[in-house]
Write a structure and sequence with these properties.
Blueprint lengths: L2 H15 L7 H9 L5 E6 L5 H9 L4 E7 L3 H15 L4 E3 L13 E4 L6 H10 L3 E4 L7 H14 L3 E3 L7 H11 L6 E9 L19 H5 L27 H5 L1 H12 L7 E7 L3 H4 L14 E7 L4 E7 L11 E7 L2 E5 L4 E6 L4 E6 L3 H14 L9 H20 L4 E2 L1 H8 L8 H14 L9 E3 L3 E4 L4 E2 L26
Parallel strand pairs: 1-2, 1-4, 2-3, 4-5, 5-6, 7-10
Antiparallel strand pairs: 7-11, 8-9, 8-16, 8-17, 9-10, 11-12, 12-13, 13-14, 15-16, 17-18
Helix pairs in contact: 3-12, 5-6, 6-13, 7-10, 10-13, 14-15
């Protein structure tokens, strides 16, 4: 029997038994010695965003990092050295999270791995009785995201999502202002991810870094045996759909979360239409035949219809000017004015005449980790600023937008044909104006839309109860993945 299968059976047996894995070490310690014991943390994935997790916990007096989990032993050892200097205690380095889930000196699993691992790792940790901090997007597909949300509730765990704007005073105050009618009735929000992303290099086979366990790195994703088609192994997976969600699902969940929060939308959209493409790198490389190794769109506009409200999400990876002083932010359109989130910490409200009426500021990632740890200690998940259900709905914006794009990826259309099609997509935005701005920035970046045209996805109708498409059964498989043996995510009915 393999290590993976025996480990899975161990977890299932222990969970059904109840005592071993559904009571956290922190709770047992509190019962015997009071609530002042330090929270023991494992940080998973420490090369990039994991560094912020490390700072978040080593910067507190009530936490200690007892484990580092990383498939790259070189990166892991370096982080262990860094942490030992900061907290005086060296964490243990392991490659496989499952090897420590039964450890008595572990309360919290803090996940900063690549996207395709977020939900499965979180579910394993929750089933083992641990609390979880999971980076955004909390899921790469809806199947695993719904399973995670169900597991959090079933096992009564604390699960915070890394959408830290939820803890920033400047954003919280701005959302409160909107919800109290500061700019009147608000039924339309525009999320913006205008973030320059250069080509990640041409297609080709590149060696896996020698310290990396590629089997574990791949996890639930298809094992590519063992080559990857990107030069930068440790970051550019974001732009390959096996592992990442493109920038709409990388940067985008921050803005989608704020937009959905301000609109008061605690659900997924009813209809989704997306157009876009991976465009402009031919001009960037001065080679009309150049093919970039990424396969997620770098230009993407998703129209998300919630019935009574609308969210537009625009992703642009080429050079583009800000819109209303926002490049990475959200614009809320109200009956009495508008509010523009200009950054993670700053928002500005205007009246209908365009006069500034309020400014909002304040932030800091530490507040988000602090909110999480306080909820871990108090056992009050209802006090979380960014619970799993919110992370799921906000990740779902990118997931559903990408499904429309992927399904229509080969439906290449000239801009005037897209404009005609969008005239039949009923929502509160000026679809023609948004398309015109999109085309303008592409042309300005040297894109020849005759040779590399935009793709138009279908208008997908989505049942928010069953969480399935109702007008396109062929698109429903894109809401999950083909799970690899040993890394199968349980369904919401199996967690």
């Amino acid at each position: 029997m393999s290590h993976i299968i025996s480990r899975r059976n161990f977890l299932r047996t222990a969970t059904l038994g109840g005592a071993l894995l559904t009571t956290s070490p922190l709770l047992m310690a509190e019962e015997s010695s009071g609530a002042n014991d330090k929270v023991n943390v494992a940080v998973v994935g420490v090369r990039g965003r994991g560094g912020d997790h490390i700072n978040g916990y080593t910067g507190r007096t009530d936490c200690v990092i007892t484990y580092i989990v990383d498939v790259d032993s070189g990166v892991g050892e370096s982080r262990c050295n860094e942490i030992e200097k900061k907290q005086g205690v060296r964490p243990k380095l392991v490659r496989d999270l499952r090897d420590i889930l039964a450890a008595p000196d572990l309360d919290v699993v803090s996940i900063a791995s690549p996207n395709h691992w977020h939900s499965l790792m979180a579910i394993w940790a929750i089933q083992a009785g641990k609390d979880v901090y999971a980076e955004k997007p909390v899921c790469q597909n809806l199947f695993e995201g719904r399973a995670l949300v169900t597991a959090v509730k079933k096992y009564n765990r604390v699960c915070q999502v890394g959408t830290q704007c939820r803890s920033n005073a400047g954003i919280r105050d701005a959302i409160k202002f909107i919800q109290e009618g500061g700019i009147g009735e608000v039924n339309l929000a525009r999320g913006l991810c205008y973030k320059r992303r250069k080509s990640i290099g041409a297609l080709g086979d590149y060696a896996i870094p020698e310290n990396v366990d590629f089997n574990l790195w791949s996890g639930p994703a298809v094992y590519t045996d063992p080559k990857v088609t990107r030069q930068s192994f440790h970051y550019d997976w974001h732009w390959q759909r096996l592992y990442g969600n493109g920038d709409s699902g990388n940067q985008g969940p921050h803005q989608a979360d704020i937009a959905r929060w301000g609109l008061g939308l605690q659900r997924l959209p009813n209809k989704i239409t997306t157009y876009g493409g991976r465009l402009g790198y031919q001009a960037e490389r001065n080679n009309p035949d150049y093919i970039d190794a990424g396969d997620t769109p770098n230009t993407e506009v998703s129209i998300l219809d919630y019935g009574d409200k609308t969210m537009i999400f625009e992703t642009r990876g080429l050079e583009t000017p800000a819109l209303d002083n926002a490049a990475i932010g959200v614009i809320f359109y109200g009956s009495e004015g508008k509010l523009v989130q200009e950054s993670y910490t700053r928002s500005v409200a205007y009246d209908k005449a365009g006069t500034k009426i309020r400014e909002f500021g304040g932030g800091g990632d530490q507040h988000h980790y602090g909110n999480f740890i306080e909820c871990v200690k108090s056992r009050k998940p209802e006090n979380l600023n960014a619970p799993a259900i919110d992370g799921y709905y906000s990740a779902g914006v990118a997931i559903l937008g990408n499904v429309s794009y992927y399904f229509g990826e080969r439906n290449y259309q000239p801009a005037d044909a897209i404009a005609t099609a969008l005239a039949n997509v009923d929502n509160r935005d000026d679809n023609a104006a948004t398309l015109a701005r999109t085309v303008e920035h592409l042309v300005a970046n040297g894109v020849d839309l005759d040779k590399t045209p935009l793709s138009l996805g279908p208008e997908l109708h989505f049942d928010t109860e069953t969480e399935q498409f109702t007008n396109c059964d062929e698109a429903n498989p894109l809401l999950t993945r083909q799970w690899r043996e040993g890394f199968v995510c349980p369904s919401k009915d199996e967690v």
